[in-house]
Design a protein that fits this description.
The structure holds three protein chains of three kinds. By secondary structure, chain A is α/β, with parallel strands linked by helices. Chain A is built from 20 helices and 26 strands. In chain A, the strands form seven sheets. In chain A, strands 1, 2, 3, 4, 5, 21, 22, 23 and 24 form a nine-stranded mixed sheet that branches. A five-stranded parallel sheet of chain A has the order 11-12-13-16-20, with helices on both faces. Chain A has a three-stranded parallel sheet with strand order 6-9-10. In chain A, helix 5 packs antiparallel against helix 6 (161-175). Chain B has one domain (4-127): Barwin-like endoglucanases (Beta Barrel), CATH 2.40.40. Chain B contains five helices and six strands. In chain B, helix 1 (14-22) packs antiparallel against helix 2 (27-33). The termini of chain B are far apart. The mean pLDDT of chain B is 95. Chain C has two domains: 50-117 and 290-432, Rossmann fold (3-Layer(aba) Sandwich); 119-285, Dimethylsulfoxide Reductase, domain 2, CATH 3.40.228.10. In chain C, the strands form five sheets. Chain C has a nine-stranded mixed sheet with strand order 5-4-20-19-18-6-7-16-17. Chain C has a five-stranded parallel sheet with strand order 11-10-9-14-15. Classes of the chains: A alpha/beta, B alpha/beta, C alpha/beta. At the B-C interface, strand 1, helix 1 and helix 5 of B face helix 1, helix 4, helix 6, helix 8 and helix 11 of C.
C-alpha cells in the first residue's frame, strides 16, 4: 500500500483542536502518521481545498430485513437512480432504499467512511451481516433491538439486574451487535395484539413492566457493561403531537445512571435518536408545532444526553422503523402502502412510503423542528447530523442539511417555499446561529465517532484510521453562509475519499472497491454469571423461538472483516 | 365414446415431494406424477375403474395417465395431476403479463384410455 | 458414527432446523425429526448422481473434464446476446451472489423459481404492501389460522407442528386454542384436518375475497351466493375474522397459479390490511423450495428487484411479464440458458421447453433431472446443506446456516465454486475478445 501525503489542505480536526489550519496529513499503512517520505508517496495537492476526517454516520437504515422489505415494496423508488456496472462498481439502483453496493458507493462518494445501522432484530442479525458483506466502501455495525424483548422484560420484572446485563452481553456477542437500541419500549410488544403504550408508566400487558422500567433497566445494564455507545433510544409516542414531554421524561429517567468523565461532567448515556420525530408540541394534528425549544433547554442543562436530528428533507421517501404501531397509524393517516413485520419474542417493524411536501403544514413543522433542535442545542458535541435515512430523507441529501445548518440565508431562501402557517408558528426564522466548519465536522464526524466510542475515527491525529475526505471548497473564496450552494455541491462529491489509507474515490467517483469492516462488541462479564445466564437462555430458547439456539448465533466465518471490540463489564 | 369436461388442477402432493427427493429417475417419482386424481362420479361416468388409464386433452396438449379416485375432489368436474412433466403437457405458455403460466384451472376433456399406455418420462422428453 | 445436531433441512421453505443427522463412513444413515420429504432427501440424495461432467456431441452426452465444461459454458454465455440464468432455489445464498455477478458480467437475465411459484405474491407487495411476521409470532399468538389455496399438510409436512395449527406457543397451547379454516377448491388433507373447510369455485378467489371485504365492512352483499358460497356463510366468516385476537392467512399456489394471479394477492393483502383496523392480522406465503426466499432476498438487496432481473442494460431492470423466464422464452429472445439446480423441463409448459432446448442449455445439478437429460452441457455439483455449507432464508425471511454433513464426491463442488469458475473464465474470454 503506497503512502499518501495530502499537502496544503485546510484541515478541520476538532478533536485535535485544528480549526482550518493549512497543514499536511501523512498516511501510511492505513493510519495517519507523523510524516512520510514524500518522494515515495502519492501526493495529493489539497491547496484551496478542505480536508476532513471521513464521515461517520451514527444512524442510517442501510441494511437488514426491514430495509430489504423497503426495497421490495418500492420498485418505483429505484427508477430514479439506475447505476450500471463499471470496471470497479457493481450495478445497483435506488434512492430511499438503495441496493447494498450502491449504498456503499454513494456514501463513499460523499466522503463518508463509517455508517452504523441503527435497528434490527437480534434474530435477524445473520441477514444483516449478509447485507453488510455486500455493502462495500464503509465500516459498519448494527444496534440490535431490545425494547420489547421477552428476556429483557422478564429479567426486569424479576429484578434480576445482573442477569439482564449478562443476557445483553451474550446477545451482542452472539449476534454480533454493537449497541442497544430501544424503539417505543414496550409498545412494540403491545402492538403484537394491535395496541400500543401511550406513556412511560403504562404496563406492558403480559409482562407487568412499564416502558420507564425498561428504559431505566436497560440504561443501567448498558452502563455496567461498559459498552462503547450509550443506549440508543427512539422514545414512546414517536410522531405524535405533544410528544416532547415523553421524550424529556424518558431522558430524565436515565439521568441517575450517568458516570462522570475525567472533566467532571457526566458521560452521555442516552442517545435520543431522530429527535425531530420525538419533539413535537401541540395537542393534535391541527395545532401540532415544534417542541424543540423545550427539548433544547433540557439538553443544554443536561450532559448525559446526545441526539441525532432525523432532519426532514422534502422528498418522496420511505419511512421504516421497528415502531410497528406508529407505522400502522401512518398507514391509516396516509392510505399509503404498508408493510408490517413482527418478530417473535423480540420486536416488530413497519414501513410506509411518504412524500414530504413543502405545502403541507405538518411536514413543514417537521422540517422546522429538526433545524430548531440543531440550532437551539448549544453544544455541537451533543448533536449528530442525520436524516434518519430514509425516514426524514435520503442520506444523499446530507449536504443540503449541512448548508441549512451553516447558512441562515439558505434557511431563509428555503422557508419562502414552505407552508406559511408553519413558519409563523415557529421560531426558526429568528434563529441566526450558523454552524462553522468545525461544528459541521463535530456533528458529522468527530462527535459521532466519539459518541460511538470509536477512538481511531473522527479525527486526523497520528494513529487514527486513515479515513479522510477532501472537498473542493476554497474558503478564501467561498463563505458557506453566503454561497451555500457551492458548499452543498462540493460536499455531495468528495474530491478524494481515503479509506484505511487507500484512495477509493477520486473526483467524486469510486475508483477502488474495498469491503469495509463489521464492528461488534464483546463485553466480558464474570464467567460464572455468563454460564448461568447462558443455560437460562437455553432453557427458554425452545419456547420462545422457532429455531435452535445454535442457529441463532452468528459465526465469525460469516462476516467479512469481523472487527470485535472487547470491553470489560462490571458484572 | 365421449369424454367429460373438466378443469385441470396441478399441485404438490406429499408423494410427489418424496418422489422428487428419491430421484427424478426413480420409479417412486414417475408413479407419483403420472396419475390423474378424479372424483369417483367422474370415474363412473367414464365407465372405467379407478386405476385404469385415462387420456386428458386440453387446447395445448394431451397426456395419458393412470386414474386414481380421490376423496379430496368432492365434486365432479375437476381433476388433479401432481406437478411434473405429465401435468405440464396440458398447460399454456402464456402468462397474461404476470410471468406465471396458469397451472390450475385449465379446461380439458377426460376420456377413457384403458388400452393406451402411460408414457415413460423418457418418451415424453423425446417428444419435446 | 458422527452425529450432527440442529441441522437445517434443505428441502422445503419451512427450513426446519432441529434435524439430528447421523453419519457413518461419510454416509447419512439417519435423520431424526425430519418429515417424509426431508428423510427421503437425507437418505437418498446420493442415489442418482450425475457421474461426470458431460457435453453433448452429435446429440449424445459424453463425459468430459470439468475444465472443458467450464470453458464451453463460458463460451456459450459470452457469445450469447441475451442469456438466461435460472434456478438457484436449492443453492446457498453465496451461490446466488456469484450467479448475480455472472449475470451482470454476461449482460443477461437472472430469474428463479419464484417466477412460476410465488411471483404474483411478490408483486402484491409492490402493489399493496404486506402485514406479515415471523413464524414464531403465529406459534405464540394466532388463534385463527386460514390456509388459502395452501395445502400445508402435503407441501410443508411439519408446518403445523412447528409453526402453526398444532404448535405450542406462549399464549396458545396447541390446536384446542386455535381455529383452522381452509379455503380451497379441493378438500385437501389440510382441509380435512381443519375446524372448517370452505369450498369455493375454481378460479373465483378474487370475487370471494371482494365479497369477504364487503362483509367485513358490515355491508350487504346483493347476491345469494358468491364463488359458490352462500352469503350467510361469507358473513359468518367475516365475523370470525373480525373477532379473533390474532389471525393469519397462509396462502399457497392455489391463489398464485390460477386466473387472477397477482390480483388475487392484491385482494388478500388488502383484506389483511383492512382486518388490522379490527384486530391483529398477518399474512404470509407458504414458499416451496428451501431457499427460494433467499434468492429473492439477495437479489433485492443487490439489485433492488426480487427476481426476473434484466441486467442486459448494465443496470438492473425488472418487469415481470416481460423479464420473466417464461415470457422471454415464449418470445424467443433468449439465446442460451444456464440452469442451476432446477428442472424447468419438468415444470414448464412443453411449448416453452421446446424453445429452451433449441438454444444452448447448460445444467449445473447434483442429480439427474429431466433438464439434465436434455442439456448440452452438464456440470455435476454438490448438495447445499448436505455436502456444502452456506446460508438460506426460510419462507418468513429468516436466515439460517446450512451445514456440511458429508464430504462431496471427488468430481463435484458447490454451485458457488462452479459459478466462480465460470465467472473467471467468462472474464478471461471477454479480455481476449
Amino acid at each position: 500500500m503506497q503512502d499518501i501525503l495530502i499537502k496544503n489542505g485546510t484541515v478541520f480536526d476538532p478533536i485535535n483542536n485544528i480549526d482550518g489550519e493549512i497543514i499536511d496529513i501523512a498516511i501510511s499503512k492505513g493510519k495517519i502518521v507523523d510524516k512520510v517520505d514524500e518522494s515515495n508517496a502519492e501526493v495529493i495537492d489539497a491547496s484551496n481545498k478542505i480536508v476532513l476526517p471521513g464521515g461517520v454516520d451514527i444512524h442510517s437504515h442501510i441494511a437488514g430485513p426491514k430495509v430489504n422489505m423497503g426495497r421490495l415494496l418500492r420498485p418505483e423508488d429505484h427508477y430514479r437512480n439506475l447505476k450500471p456496472k463499471t470496471s470497479v462498481k457493481r450495478a445497483g439502483v435506488g434512492t430511499s432504499c438503495p441496493s447494498t453496493f450502491t449504498t456503499g458507493y454513494e456514501y463513499s462518494e460523499m466522503g463518508y467512511t463509517t455508517v452504523f445501522e441503527p435497528a434490527n432484530p437480534p434474530l435477524k442479525m445473520l441477514h444483516v451481516i449478509d447485507e453488510f458483506n455486500d455493502t462495500p466502501m464503509i465500516d459498519k455495525a448494527c444496534y440490535p433491538l431490545f425494547g420489547s424483548n421477552w428476556h429483557v422484560m422478564e429479567y426486569l420484572h424479576d429484578n434480576k439486574e445482573d442477569e439482564l446485563a449478562a443476557y445483553i452481553a451474550w446477545t451482542l456477542r452472539s449476534v454480533k451487535g454493537y449497541a442497544c437500541k430501544l424503539v417505543n419500549p414496550g409498545g412494540v410488544e403491545q402492538w403484537k395484539w394491535g395496541g400500543d403504550v401511550e406513556g412511560l408508566d403504562v404496563a406492558v400487558g403480559n409482562f407487568g413492566v412499564t416502558p420507564r422500567e425498561i428504559v431505566k433497566g436497560m440504561c443501567k445494564a448498558v452502563q455496567r457493561l461498559n459498552l462503547p455507545h450509550s443506549i440508543h433510544i427512539h422514545a414512546n409516542n414517536l410522531g405524535m403531537p405533544g410528544n416532547y414531554e415523553t421524550s424529556i421524561e424518558t431522558l430524565d429517567s436515565m439521568r441517575e445512571y450517568a458516570k462522570e468523565n475525567t472533566n467532571g461532567k457526566p458521560n452521555p448515556i442516552a442517545h435520543l435518536t431522530h429527535v425531530q420525530f420525538n419533539t413535537y408540541g401541540g395537542t393534535n394534528w391541527m395545532n401540532i408545532t415544534s417542541g424543540a425549544e423545550h427539548l433544547a433547554k433540557y439538553i443544554n442543562n443536561n450532559d448525559h444526553v446526545s441526539i441525532d436530528l432525523g432532519q426532514v428533507v422534502f422528498s418522496d421517501t420511505t419511512t421504516m422503523t421497528a415502531d410497528g404501531p406508529f407505522e400502522h397509524k401512518l398507514q391509516t393517516l396516509t392510505g399509503n402502502r404498508w408493510v408490517n413485520a413482527d418478530i417473535e419474542a423480540e420486536t416488530g417493524c413497519g414501513i410506509v412510503p411518504i412524500k414530504y411536501k413543502k405545502s403541507n403544514y405538518i411536514h413543514a413543522i417537521m422540517w422546522v423542528t429538526g433545524l430548531e433542535a440543531a440550532l437551539m442545542i448549544d453544544d455541537p458535541w451533543k448533536v449528530c447530523m442525520t436524516t434518519d435515512h430514509p425516514n426524514g430523507g435520503y442520506f444523499t441529501t446530507y449536504p443540503r442539511v449541512v448548508t441549512w445548518l451553516m447558512s441562515q440565508k439558505a434557511r431563509e431562501k428555503y422557508m419562502e417555499k414552505v407552508n406559511k402557517r408553519a413558519k409563523s408558528r415557529t421560531a426558526l426564522e429568528s434563529l441566526d446561529r450558523e454552524y462553522s466548519f468545525s461544528d459541521v465536522v463535530i456533528s458529522t464526524r468527530a462527535g459521532t465517532a466519539r459518541l460511538l466510542g470509536l477512538n481511531d475515527k473522527g479525527h486526523l491525529g497520528v494513529g487514527a484510521d486513515a479515513d479522510v475526505a477532501v472537498y473542493n471548497i476554497d474558503l478564501n473564496k467561498i463563505d458557506p453562509a453566503i454561497q451555500y450552494w457551492k458548499v452543498r455541491k462540493a460536499l455531495r462529491r468528495a474530491d478524494y475519499t481515503i479509506k484505511d489509507g487507500e484512495i477509493v474515490v477520486k473526483d467524486g467517483e469510486v475508483v477502488k472497491s474495498v469491503p469495509g469492516r463489521s464492528y461488534w462488541v464483546d463485553s466480558k462479564v464474570s464467567t460464572d454469571l455468563a454460564k448461568s445466564v447462558e443455560s437460562e437462555i437455553k432453557e427458554k430458547f425452545k419456547d420462545y423461538y422457532t429455531i435452535q439456539m445454535s442457529n441463532y448465533i452468528v459465526a465469525e466465518k460469516n462476516i467479512i472483516n469481523s472487527s470485535p471490540i472487547t470491553v470489560q463489564a462490571e458484572v | 365414446m365421449t369424454g367429460i369436461k373438466v378443469k385441470v388442477l396441478s399441485g404438490r402432493t406429499l408423494r410427489q415431494g418424496v418422489g422428487k427427493e428419491a430421484g427424478k429417475n426413480s420409479e417412486r417419482y414417475r408413479t407419483s406424477v403420472s396419475i390423474c386424481e378424479m372424483n369417483s362420479e367422474d370415474i363412473t361416468s367414464l365407465s372405467i375403474k379407478a386405476g385404469e388409464n385415462v387420456k386428458v386433452t386440453s387446447a395445448h396438449g394431451s397426456v395419458v395417465l393412470k386414474s386414481v379416485s380421490s376423496n379430496q375432489l368432492t365434486k365432479p368436474g375437476m381433476i388433479f395431476i401432481p406437478y411434473g412433466l405429465y401435468a405440464n403437457q396440458l398447460f399454456n405458455e402464456t402468462t397474461g403479463g404476470s410471468g406465471m403460466p396458469t397451472f390450475k384451472g385449465e379446461p380439458a376433456v377426460v376420456e377413457s384410455a384403458i388400452e393406451e399406455p402411460v408414457k415413460t418420462l423418457e418418451e415424453l422428453i423425446t417428444e419435446i | 458414527m458422527e452425529i450432527f445436531q440442529d441441522v437445517v433441512c434443505p428441502v422445503c421453505g419451512c427450513l426446519c432446523d432441529d434435524i439430528e443427522v447421523s453419519v457413518e463412513n461419510n454416509k447419512i444413515v439417519k435423520a431424526r425429526n425430519a418429515c417424509a420429504m426431508g428423510t427421503t432427501k437425507f437418505l437418498n440424495y446420493n442415489n442418482d448422481r450425475i457421474p461426470s461432467p458431460m457435453i453433448k456431441n452429435n446429440g449424445v452426452q459424453k463425459p468430459v473434464s470439468l475444465e472443458e465444461c467450464i470453458e464451453k459454458t463460458a463460451e456459450i454465455l459470452v457469445k450469447a446476446k441475451y442469456p438466461l440464468i435460472y434456478g438457484l432455489s436449492l443453492s446457498s445464498v453465496e451461490s446466488v451472489k456469484v450467479a448475480i455477478e455472472l449475470t451482470e458480467e454476461v449482460g443477461g437475465v437472472l430469474d428463479n423459481q419464484t417466477s412460476v411459484c410465488h411471483g404474483p405474491g411478490v408483486q402484491g407487495i409492490h402493489d399493496i404492501g404486506e402485514s406479515t411476521g415471523s413464524l414464531g409470532e403465529i406459534r405464540h399468538r394466532a388463534d385463527l389460522i386460514i390456509a388459502w389455496g395452501a395445502n400445508l399438510q402435503e407441501a410443508h409436512p411439519r408446518h403445523m407442528e412447528r409453526y402453526s395449527y398444532t404448535s405450542k406457543g406462549r399464549y396458545r397451547n396447541g390446536k384446542e386454542d386455535r381455529n383452522l379454516i381452509v379455503i380451497d377448491v379441493r378438500e385437501t388433507l389440510t382441509a380435512k384436518a381443519a375446524d372448517k373447510f370452505i369450498q369455493i369455485e375454481q378460479g373465483k378467489d378474487f370475487e370471494f375475497i371482494n365479497a369477504l371485504r364487503t362483509a367485513l365492512r358490515l355491508e350487504q352483499i346483493q347476491k345469494d351466493k358468491v364463488a359458490g358460497v352462500p352469503v350467510e356463510e361469507i358473513e359468518k366468516l367475516a365475523e370470525v375474522l373480525r373477532s379473533c385476537e390474532f389471525g393469519v392467512i397462509f396462502f399457497g399456489q392455489g391463489v398464485t397459479q390460477v386466473n387472477g394471479k397477482g390480483r388475487n394477492i392484491d385482494g388478500l393483502f388488502s383484506l389483511t390490511r383492512d382486518l388490522n383496523s379490527w384486530t391483529k392480522f398477518l399474512i404470509m406465503p407458504a414458499r416451496g423450495h428451501f431457499n427460494v426466499a433467499g434468492v429473492n432476498q439477495v437479489a433485492t438487496w443487490q439489485t433492488g428487484f426480487p427476481y426476473a432481473i434484466d441486467l442486459s442494460r448494465g443496470y438492473p431492470w425488472y418487469n415481470p411479464g416481460e423479464t420473466t423466464i417464461i415470457d422471454i422464452i415464449r418470445r424467443g429472445e433468449s439465446d442460451a440458458t444456464l440452469v442451476v439446480g432446477s428442472d424447468p423441463i419438468a415444470h414448464f409448459p412443453p411449448a416453452i421447453s421446446k424453445r429452451l432446448i433449441n438454444t444452448p442449455l447448460i445444467s449445473i445439478d447434483p442429480a439427474h433431472s429431466m433438464t439434465t437429460m436434455v442439456s448440452d452441457v452438464v456440470i455435476p455439483s454438490s448438495f447445499a446443506g448436505i455436502e456444502y455449507e452456506g446460508l438460506a432464508y426460510r419462507m418468513d425471511g429468516l436466515c439460517l446456516p446450512l451445514k456440511k454433513l458429508v464430504k462431496e464426491p471427488d468430481n463435484t463442488m458447490s454451485d458457488e465454486k462452479v459459478l466462480k469458475m465460470i465467472l473467471a473464465k467468462v472474464r478471461e474470454l471477454k479480455k481476449v475478445n
